[in-house]
Amino acid sequence: MWNNLFLTSLKSFFSPRVVTVLLAVVLLLAIYLTGRNQGYQLAQALGDAALAKQQAAFNLLQQQQAETQNQLLRAAAEQYQQQVERGNQLEQRYVAARQKLAADNAALQRKIDHVTQQYIDEKGKAQPVQCVFTRGFVQYYNAAFGLSADGATDVTTAARRTGAASGSSATADAELQPSGISQRDILANISDNGERYQALAAQVNALLDYIEALQNAGEVTRED
Could you count the other beta carbons within 10 Å of the beta carbon of residue 210? Predict the structure, then answer.
């Protein structure tokens, strides 16, 4: 009797309407679970794609920055190398100029005796040179080069060897006394001074050429 009652209750519970409702609930639950899983997977896929895109953009930016930096470094290295080569060229040119000036001065020094020891008069005869340079002349000569009587070491050297120091007397008569300096001494001194002048001119010109090279490279701005 209880078995029949249980079966009857079970049959009434699993009526077609109840079964339909249960199937609908199960179907909705399955759809919900499937949708949630697919939505999670889709969101994860979209997130991964967005992250990969950002990472790719970041890597590209880093690569571009690295390439730009490398280009700047290469340009700076090339410019530096050009400056070094230009400096070496100017140095070699200056050294060559100094060597040529020294050789030219030595050649002039060897010719001094020939043009200072004698001269040919109007009769075509060789005559000894009679030229006197006073102490005052030597003093003013040295003063023109910024040399004091005490510190002069160029043209007054010969005068000191003869015991006549230029500027040693303040009297006018003393300035008119022979200095012991000859034409040869004067010409030799001028030859040495000429070498120094041309060496300084070559050095200044080399420096100007180097500054011009820097200006062309855009590193130095001339201020007018």
Answer: 17
- pTM score above 0.90: no
What's the confidence (pLDDT) of residue 163? Answer: 40
Which secondary-structure segment (H or E) carries 72? helix 16-116
DSSP state of 155: T
Q: Residue 12 is which amino acid?
A: S
Q: Give dist(CA 171, CA 134) in Å, integer.
A: 13
Q: Domain ranges in the chain?
A: 93-216
Residue 108 burial (CB count, 10 A)? 17
Across 175-180, average pLDDT: 90
For residues 89 and 213, the answer to whether their CB atoms sit within 8 Å is no
Compute the half-sphere exposure of residue 45: CA atoms within 13 Å on the CB side of its CA. 6
> Is residue 187 within 8 Å of residue 116, measured between CB atoms?
yes
Is the Cα dihedral 140, 141, 147, 151 positive or negative?
negative
Q: Supply φ then ψ for residue 167, to 5 degrees.
A: 80, 10
